[in-house]
Structure formats: C-alpha cells, structure tokens
Amino acid sequence: MNASQLDDFLALSRANPQFLAPFSETLPDGGQVQVWDTGVICIEPVVPASKDVVLSCGIHGNETAPIELCARLLADILSGRIVCRQRLLLIFGHPTAMNLGVREVEENLNRLFSGAHAKGDRQSMERQRAARLEQYVTRFFQHRDATERLHYDLHTAIRPSQYEQFAIYPFTHGAPYHKGQLAFLCDSGVDTILLAHGPTMTFSYFSAHQFAAHAFTVELGKVNAFGHNDASRVAKLENNLTQLLQTPGWQPPPLDLARIRVFKVCQEIIKQSEHFCFHFADTVANFTMFSPGTLLAQDGSRQWRAGDNAEAVIFPNAGVALQQRAALMVEAAELSADRLY
Ligand SMILES: [Zn+2]
Asked: Looking at the predicted structure, is the pLDDT value of residue 135 above 60?
C-alpha cells in the first residue's frame, strides 16, 4: 500500500480540513481501507465479523485525548499490528477546529445531528459537517444488516470531574438498557453512567435512534493540548476497543451493578438572558453535589433550585449562547434488573 498517503491519516485530514477526495487502499491482510472524506475512514475486512463499529472523536476540535487514541488505533490497523475483523468507520469529527485548537468554530457540532443542521436559515461550517457525517454513518450502517451496531463518540470535558470517565446513555424512549454495553463501558474504566431524559441533537442519539445502534457519548477526562495527554488514563478503553475489533466473540466480564454509578437527568438549566448567573463557582467539577432546595442559578426573576433529592451539576457553562443549555442537573438513580436486557 502507498504508505505516503495513509501514513498519518490525521495529519492528512488536518492538511485538508474542509474536504478530502475519496480513495482506497489495501490493508496488509487484504482488507480494504477507504477514505471517504477528511477525517472519515472506513475499514472493510475481507470477511467481516458480526459487528459494525463507528468510533468518533474530535467532534469538539480541542478534545485531543480521544483523537490521539483513535489515531493510535488506526495506525495499528494500517500497519497490520491490529487485524481489524469488524467493519469500522473511524471519524475525526472537526479537523478545522483541531487546527485552530478550539472546541468549535461557529457553533457546537454536537447539537446539530438528527437533522438539526437543516433547521432555520443559519449556515455554518459545523452544519455542513454534521450533514455530511450523518450521510457517512447512514451509508456505513445501511451497507448491511449487522447483528450489532455500535457507536462510541469519544469526548473530553472542559472541566475536571468528580468521576473522571463517564458515559451518556442516549434516551431510549422507554426501551431497557443493554447489560453487555454497560459491562463493556465499566470494564473500560467508564463506570459512571448518565441516563438521558429525552431526545437530543447529539451524534450518539442520532445513531441510537436512526439505526438502533448501541451508541454512547463517552467523556474521558479533561481537555489537554495535543501531545499533553497521559495515554495510560485511557488504556483500559483502548485495550477493550482493540479486543472488540480484532477478536470476534470477545466479551468483557459480566456486568456487576455494584461497580457502576448511575445518574439520571432531572433538569436542564437554559440560559434566557445576559442576566443569567450561577450561584456556585463557575469552576466547580462535574458531578459536584448540591443539597435539596439549594439555589443553583438565576436569570432575572427566574430561579433554579435543586429539587427534593440532592442534585449534581454537569457541564456548567454560563457563557453559552442564549436559549442554550447552561448546565445539566442529575440525581442518583437505580438500574433495576427489569430495566436491563
Ligand atoms: Zn466534547
């Protein structure tokens, strides 16, 4: 294969951040590697096993640890160190934002899926990218009726977290939660699970809702600059992803509910005006707890308080645009056996 073209796909994508003409090459084991666009590369094994896997990172351009993790996995696949037995779509989400070292250029890419990119008159770089990423995921999953569709959308948080690695389980519309996936996440070091309370415009909800994929937004710790991440902190997930891709039939140890911490969303705090403010320091860690009734935020005469149970704050950001979510409030939840399958 032409080592010069695919030697470093991430660098190639960052050198062509808007568009990359498709091309394909052959892997050492005879499989196909297909470049679909900048940041979008598909691995087609000679005889694919039963899972179709989407792995995405860099939907926010400055979330470098997952970008580096995916680049390492891809390098191992291209060199033949990992023989990828599952169909894989690897997505480096936002090369332009990566080049600028920013989370987003014009707006939050992870609020533009499930068609949100086409709503209203607004045009933006992120809207174009969301539309194209939806097409690629659709093309990938519709290629066949895989036994299992998976999508892990990897992120890092802006701020520290009481629980460093956590996953958001997109709204299931009442369907039960998947034991095998919770076991995979827990064994990968992602032992805190947040159950979403409604449809969202995130990439993971898109795959879950449109394609019945087991899809998750996975938060892997705090944002650092490229080259300043400690790979050992994501090693468990990296090892498990490697197992998933190269060993059909591999399974993590069975789920032990005592080892996972579960929260559910209880309220969203939406910024209404420029008078919006939090009643806690803007720098608090994710999952900081507040006692029942605590005043959390204020916007003119509107107040938000913790309800009858203690609530923890996630993703607080008073700087969001008007009508956007300034924080998500969650409370501890139980996952009883009848809600699992
Ligand atoms: Zn992110």
From this structure: yes
